[in-house]
Amino acid sequence: MLALSKVSPGENGLELSEVAVALPKADEVRIKVHAAGICGTDMQIYKWSPRIKRRMTLPRVIGHEVSGIVDQVGSAVSNIQVGDHVALESHIYCNNCVQCHRGQEHLCENLTYPGIDIDGGFAEYIVVPARIAWVITQPLDHNIAAMLEPFGIGVHAALEGSGVSGQTVLVNGCGPIGLMTIAVARALGARRIIASDINPLRLKTAELMGADRMVKVGDEDVVNAVKDFTNGVGADVGIEFSGSEAGFRNVFESLTKGGDFRLVGAPAQPINVDFSQWVLKCPKVHNIHGRRIWQSWERAMPLIYDGKVDLRPLVSHVLPMSEATSGFDLILQGLAVKPIIVPA
Ligand SMILES: [Zn+2]
Ligand SMILES: [Zn+2]
Fold first, then answer.
1. For the CA of 38, the nearest ligand
2. Would residue 294 count as lying in a domain?
3. Which ligand ends up closest to the CA of 110?
4. Are 296 and 156 a contacting pair, CB within 8 Å?
5. Which of 7, 98, 148, 259 has its CA 20 to 30 A from that of 236?
6. For position 71, what pLDDT does the model report?
């Protein structure tokens, strides 16, 4: 089968090539991939970031945002059947550590990932442990189903802490997950949503997803814009997706006292934080890592099935496998929101 693999370290190092189709072991399922999204993590693999370099052995088929149809199940699998439409939870949790026992599988000590630790979904078939396959029970377009994994992070971010209902929410950083969070916040009854980013295409999409006030970083100061929009009060909830130090500081400064600071995009480098300011403002801090398994999915699916959230505006490109690498170029050029790869 044709697959997109990371074959050499350093920037890019991707190669489209023929690889063998694997058979599922007893606790695994094989999925015929119909759509797979390119994610920020795939961009880190492309750029060969320190976090990725530490754990990844090459060559490796990449991609983890997958929608497909199960075509084989291992002998010990009872919850999934051939023909099921599934999307993947990308956190392969061990079910056997303290965190898993506490119901915090998303924080599992032994997490591994398709597309990093085992072969991934930019391929005609993917084989994964059956426990990370989520069965889609209503008709759903594969391109949308491929986005459920990042969507679950948006749902997690919107539900954490004080939630969003009735509140003014700042979404700082409008990549796909930030944009999804805007849609979730709208659907779950946020009073006002402010979206900030440097990229005009993303801000245009933010408006489509339901943001009330778009702030173009560079042209406008985020903190001043939030203060103006809230009559000086500040945002009740600030969700940081940009992963930049400036973004981190902007979210803190934009918050009202005692508001919710939710950190999704971690700064790449350590940053200095003046905790005397934090103690004075007393934000409630929530770190968002992945999806709560399976609570985030249980909350995510009705939003999609009932049409409360429409993810279609996020699909900026649908590419055949032969053009998979151009999806990475489009993201690097700031011309794509979510490119979807369709293997054959
Ligand atoms: Zn992803
Ligand atoms: Zn575990």
1. 1
2. no
3. 2
4. yes
5. 148
6. 98
